[in-house]
Amino acid sequence: MMLWLVAVLTAVAILAILRGLYMLLMADVVVDLDTRLLPGTHPLPAEEEENVSWWSRWARRLAITRALDEQLDRANVKLTGGEWLTIWIALTSVAFLLGLLVSGNLVGAVGIAVIGFLLPKMWLDRRVAKRRQMFQDQLVDVLRLITNALQAGHGLLQAMKVVSEEMPSPSNEEFGRVVMEVGLGYSLVDALQHLVRRVENDDLEMVVTAIEINMEVGGSLSEILANVSNTIEERVRLKGEINSLTAQQRMSAYLISGMPFILAIILTILNPSYMLGLFTPQWIWLPAIGVVMIVMGNLVMRRMMRIEV
Predict the structure, then answer these.
(1) What global pTM score does this model have?
(2) Cα–Cα distance measured from residue 214 to residue 221, given in angstroms and rounded to the nearest whole number
(3) C-beta of residue 159 within 8 angstroms of C-beta of residue 207
């Protein structure tokens, strides 16, 4: 039975990896304008649906792929939700097989499979957070560049084009996308709202709100953006001080929460019979209570370090 299980999972993992590589390297999916700009939110026209692989058509119907499309868009990863899901399943299957071969029991295999399942999500979330932080760090310079361009006589769209040419990533990519969307037919307000949804930045949302109000009532946009830029600069400075003061506590929360799981996996690999005793019917409540308490402690520590500015 174990040999059959290993054979089936190996076959599934190989097929998933091959399919993911094919879609990543060779597939040329033709999509309409809305699907290019906002992946996962609009269906394809009937005449273009024929050019999409059966896996992409099936995966697009899943809510998880729509959420993955948005997350991949925020991370600037050039994959669709279906392609990412394929690679994700393949990595989890490979991790399970490696755990089964190394540990020789299902508990160790499941533990390593959980790591293989969590690592891609952690990497993607980390990439999104890093990109979001980089955008936050560049936002003050972006606003100053837009303000100077407005004072020099450029329009708002031309000022954003200057940002796309002069600023580093990710600001140049995001504002370049705003300029592209306007050129493809979206209004400037809609393109800016798409930018807010991608970046998920409160300061940027305040800037876009100020721009929309200015478009409604008029006034000096350069002066408004200069005042907003000064406010954001003070908030960034204060957030930096808070992050420095809470860095040690955050690291302690990560270590304390992750250490029991790491030790459990290591002990399962080194001495399976010792750890399997915890998963018998009379003792299974002990690891369950331990996991619940670890999660609750982590949430409490994270809540204590969350300081709104």
Answers:
(1) 0.64
(2) 7
(3) no
